[in-house]
Prior knowledge:
The strands form 2 sheets. Strands 2, 4, 5, 6, 9, 10 and 11 form a 7-stranded mixed sheet that branches. Strands 1-3-8-7 form a 4-stranded antiparallel sheet, with no helix packed on it. With 130 residues, it is mainly beta. The chain has one helix at residues 105-108, and strands at 3-7, 10-12, 18-25, 33-39, 46-51, 58-60, 68-73, 78-83, 92-99, 119-120, 124-128. The longest helix is centred in the C-terminal third of the chain and has 4 residues, at 105-108. The chain contains 1 helix and 11 strands.
Amino acid sequence: QLQLVESGGGLVQPGGSLRLSCVASGFSLDDYGIGWFRQAPGKEREGVSCIGKNGVSTTYARSVKGRFTITRDNAKNTVYLQMNNLRPEDTANYFCVADRVIATVQALCVPGPLGTYDYWGRGTQVTVSS
C-alpha cells in the first residue's frame, strides 16, 4: 500500500521538544519533495516546512523559523521535523505530503488542495499545553 505515515506527536509543555517522522510505505521518497503542514480546528492549513529532493533546499514558515528543523534520511525513507521551544500556538494536527514535481520548496509549502500532491498522510496531533 502506497502511503505516508506520520508519528511522534503528543502532549508537551511549552518550551518542550518533539520530533515528528514521516515514513513512506510502498514507494521511495528519493524522487519527492516533502512538506510538513499543520491545521488547527477553525484555522487555515499552514505550510510549516518543506525540503527538496536533495535535502539541501529547505524553507520554513516565519512562525517556526529558528525553532523547527526539517531533515530527510532517504536510506530510511523518512523525513523528520525537529520541533524545539514549542508554543501553545503550535498545537495542531501535523501531516506530511510528497510531490514529485516541484518548482521550488517555497512553492511546495504554499497550501493547496490535498489532491494537488502525489501522497499525503493523515497526520499526528501535537498539543502544547501546561
